[in-house]
Amino acid sequence: MKKKEKIVIFEEYLEELYPDARCELNYTKDYELLLAVVLSAQTTDKRVNLVTEVLFRQYPTLLSLASTDIDTVSKILMPIGTFRKKAQFVIEIAKRLVEEQEGKIPNDPEYLVSLPGVGRKTANVVLSNLFDYPAIAVDTHVERVSKRLAFSKKDASVLEVENNLQKAYDRKNWSRRHHQMVLFGRYHCKAIHPECASCKIKDICSYK
């Protein structure tokens, strides 16, 4: 089967499974999403939501976060691992947004990746959610699914996976497909014990 046909079949399956796909991180303010995505590195969204509920309640503004100390924030973030480094990121990001952006998140990928703890994936997630910016953020789930379906080679870099998916999908659907692929990888095509038996696209998957 040609790659283009596989892509169409996969898109149809994603629409069936996740017609209302969205980011599973909880936030009520733009900067809260940015901080939550930074905190989500190497941990689960569920665990991040538990700590941000405490963090954002105790520090309800960017200014309050920028003014606090790393030890206090570290204690709140302890359940998510590498908590001290992440606490430093949170405080430094808050300070820069207050000092340089009047507390607002700019629609500017170059600025975002200049912030501590913010890489291309984080910037893409934030921009696509806040500004409907067309982007495919490649996290571990998206990368795994893409390679198992042979949309990218097994040794492809994250950037190569992103470029391949951008070529595969219509630009207007990039953000939607990102969210759907994240959920598919998180709940179906898992790293360990994937739900292959019940998967409707197992015939076009290279995973064994």
Shape: elongated
Please tell me the overall pLDDT: 95
Q: Sketch the topology as an H/E string, one letter per element.
A: HHHHHHHHHHH
Share of β-strand residues: under 5%
- Number of H/I helices: 11
The biggest sheet amounts to: none
Measure the end-to-end span: 18 Å
Task: Please compute the radius of gyration using only Cα atoms.
Answer: 18 Å
Structural class: mainly alpha
Number of strand segments: 0
**Helicity, as a percent range:** 55-70%
What does this structure look like?
The chain is an all-alpha fold and 208 residues long. Helix content is 59%, strand content 0%. It is built from 11 helices and no strands. It has helices at residues 3-17, 30-39, 45-58, 62-66, 70-77, 83-101, 109-113, 120-131, 140-148, 158-168, 174-187. Helix 2 (30-39) runs antiparallel to helix 6 (83-101). The longest helix has 19 residues, at 83-101. The radius of gyration is 18 Å and the shape is elongated.
What structural keywords apply?
mainly alpha; 59% helix; 11 helices; 208 residues
